[in-house]
Amino acid sequence: MRLATKLRNVFYSMPVVAAGEAAGLRIFSRGADPDFARGTYEFPIQEAIVSLLEPGNVFYDVGANIGFFSLIAARRVGSHGQVYAYEPVPRNAAAIRRSRDVNRLSTIQVFAEAVGAVTGDAELLLARHLGGATLANVSTPPDVNGRLSVRTTTLDDSIARYGLRPPTLVKIDVEGAEIDVLRGMTAALTAYRPKVICEVDAATKSGLDHKAREIIGFLATAGYAVSSLPAAYANDGWQVEHIVAQPMPT
């Protein structure tokens, strides 16, 4: 019975994604949003990632959660592409590695680090919701469930330190630290001109608009044109918006 239970737990924690751009892939999703396994999670972002990437491209998944978008990107860029997934929550980073391995997507490289404006150390506030952890100097999750010390890096430092391939597309979902991530990748924005998908969220519409204006202003100064993606949520409670930025011709 114990063996049967263990096998059943493994099976149900690694379901085959039912629909969407990750359909047919297995994902380690135990305890995560069930929409990951259904394949319906943030469908406009799934479509944007596939449309903005080509085989051989390089995808940076900043705030990768359990790696749903990393799997989609790895399938899209193929064996000659590369995916770098940044996720500071140890449980989530381990889930990405498990999904990578079971799907034989060896182009995914996982960094168990938080990304921001500086390289060093910081306190991460964990949340009961697996994707809700935040850096303590940014915000406090409403469902705090612990804390731990994590390494932080900027994308510019990470690219230089590890000799990473230049980004084609960067997806940012970091629970309030978006502007810090952008400030820490100014060299990459200037040198490589990657496309950027960024989630912006807040408790109120006015709070969302304030964050979005700051991010859009920063990207505009860097020579990017910004547009909104179709809504991924009803926004009848917590407010969420996704923007895509593309470099303007020089």
TrEMBL record:
<dbReference type="InterPro" id="IPR052514">
    <property type="entry name" value="SAM-dependent_MTase"/>
</dbReference>
<protein>
    <submittedName>
        <fullName>FkbM family methyltransferase</fullName>
    </submittedName>
</protein>
<dbReference type="InterPro" id="IPR006342">
    <property type="entry name" value="FkbM_mtfrase"/>
</dbReference>
<feature type="domain" description="Methyltransferase FkbM">
    <location>
        <begin position="61"/>
        <end position="224"/>
    </location>
</feature>
<dbReference type="GO" id="GO:0032259">
    <property type="term" value="P:methylation"/>
</dbReference>
<keyword id="KW-0489">Methyltransferase</keyword>
<dbReference type="Pfam" id="PF05050">
    <property type="entry name" value="Methyltransf_21"/>
</dbReference>
<keyword id="KW-0808">Transferase</keyword>
<dbReference type="InterPro" id="IPR029063">
    <property type="entry name" value="SAM-dependent_MTases_sf"/>
</dbReference>
<dbReference type="GO" id="GO:0008168">
    <property type="term" value="F:methyltransferase activity"/>
</dbReference>
